Amino acid sequence: MVRAQDVIAIYQSLSGAGIQVWLTGGWGIDALLGRETREHKDLDILVLVDDVVPMRELLARAGYALQELWSENTWTVDAHGTEIPTAFVLQDGEGRQVDAHAMRLDDRGNGVPAWEHDGFAIQQEHLAGEGTVAGVAVRCISPESQVLGHTGYELSPEQSRDLALLQERFGVAHPDQRAGT
After folding, report:
1. Helix, strand or coil, per DSSP, at residue 110
2. Which of 12, 24, 74, 118 has the fewest CB atoms within 10 Å, counting from its CB?
3. Residues in CB range of 115: below 8 A, 6 or more apart
């Protein structure tokens, strides 16, 4: 399990090293809500393509190693010419996981996922989400982007509950919630 203190330690370590990071997934939703609503098996984050290598090096010093490449992973090259994965999971010896996805920023500041090639982008305003984890301010994606990130697949009960909390607090609804399913 990834606890609040783990999230804060990872976030502050990365941010302190100049690595831009956005919380997504369950911890991203809890950050938007300003409270921990459930246990989390991992910490989902977005990072810039050019920050993947330093992020992995920093987390490796904390005991994190590559555990899995996601099926949507593609390989890309960062600004230093290093080939990097774009969708992967790191895990430490205690089983804590960091689920990372890489993106680039376009000339308007929109986040372009490096693992997708269909023209999808996270609008700049949706990268400006702010939340708190155990009272510590963190960057996260907006409630609207959280909903968009949870479409196209069958949701787990936890994810459905997370999205219901977003709808209750922010008025954003998942397509399945709007349809009443």
Report:
1. coil
2. 118
3. 70, 72, 73, 74, 86, 87, 101, 102
Report yes or no on 160 lying in a domain: no
- Please list the ranges in the chain whose pLDDT falls under 70: 117, 176-181
CA-closest candidate to residue 48, choices 70, 27, 13, 21 = 21
The pTM (predicted TM-score) of the whole model is 0.93
DSSP 81: S
28-81, pLDDT tens digit by residue? 999 999 999 999 999 999 999 999 999 999 999 999 999 999 999 999 999 999
CB atoms within 10 A of CB 29: 29
For residue 27, give the CATH number of its domain: 3.30.460.40
Token couple for 140: 């996260």
Which residue in the block uniquely carries the two structure tokens 């609503």? 37
Split into its structural domains, the chain has a count of 1
Q: Which residues pair with 129 in a beta bridge?
A: 140
Q: Which domain covers residue 105, as residue numbers?
A: 4-143
